[in-house]
Design a protein that fits this description.
about 55 residues, mainly alpha
């Protein structure tokens, strides 16, 4: 899978859930920026699906 990544993390200062939260927030924001820059015909559908998922979390 080209979009699949695995990480091994360790921390002694910051709690691991905080690191994961920040990483997910950063990658999501970068993904949104990338989609906005692309000439993607399904852009509105993608953002609609994002909002639907977020509303159901």
């Amino acid at each position: 899978m080209p979009g699949h990544r695995q990480m091994i993390l360790s921390t002694s200062k910051e709690p691991l859930p905080n690191i994961m939260r920040d990483f997910k927030k950063f990658t999501f924001n970068e993904l949104v920026k990338m989609i906005e820059r692309m000439n993607e015909s399904r852009k509105e559908s993608i953002f609609y699906l994002f909002s639907e998922v977020a509303d159901n979390l």
